[in-house]
TrEMBL record:
Protein name from the UniProt record: Tubulin polymerization promoting protein
Location of the Cytochrome c domain: 64-149
UniProt keyword annotation of Protease present: no
Annotated InterPro entries: Cyt_c-like_dom, EF-hand-dom_pair, TPP/p25
PANTHER family for this protein: P25 ALPHA-RELATED, TUBULIN POLYMERIZATION-PROMOTING PROTEIN
Stretches with biased composition (Basic and acidic residues): 24-34, 176-193
GO cellular component terms listed in the entry, alphabetical order: cytosol; microtubule; microtubule bundle; mitochondrion; mitotic spindle; nucleus; perinuclear region of cytoplasm
Compartment list: Cytoplasm
Chief location bin: cytoplasm
Gene name in the database record: TPPP
Keywords: Cytoplasm, Heme, Iron, Metal-binding
Region (Disordered): 1-40, 168-193
Lineage: superkingdom: Eukaryota
Amino acid sequence: MMADNKTKSIKPANKTPPKSPADPAKERAAKRLSYESNSSHEGAMAAELSALEEAFRKFAIHGDTRATGKEMHGKNWSKLCKDCHVIDGKNVTITDVDIVFSKIKGKSSRTITFDQFKEALQELSKKRFKDKSNEEAVQEIHKLIEGKAPIISGVTKTISSPTVSRLTDTSKFTGSHKERFDPSGKGRGKAGREDLVVASGYVPGYKHAGTYDHKVQGSK
């Protein structure tokens, strides 16, 4: 019995070799590669997420510094449809665009999300591209919008008025103001602002200044 108990108590030897100490540098390198791989994958997904959503975000934040780009107001929706030529004045009009927006958005909401935006485009695609299948029409309307951005208009123009013209026409200046510009309208700089000493020997403004030497030489 004693022999049997001793035999049972003996444990088999662990044949698994002991692990070598971890190399911190290799672990960091492996983690970095894993992170870069995940980042590149996420970047590819973001790129796919794409031209259509990028356009949506650009129009969604247009004219609103507080906008996040996740939702779009009716005004910006209409601008997108105009700028991207979704509205062609024939198959799709501004009225059609407004009706679709009101239909897609929630009853108590004033904005649409990107998913609702795609639904609205699907609705308009049926009218905009009547001669194509539903799938082709959606693709075509997406092409009109992908990669686009709001067109900036309404640049301030200079208003012409008699008062402004009189104040900026140097030929009509009088007194000390006239002395600050030459006949072509170019500023004279310091000479037009200060009384500079003239050492020519002639009185300032004398018409025949510089002719004395010529007269003396001519009389000899």
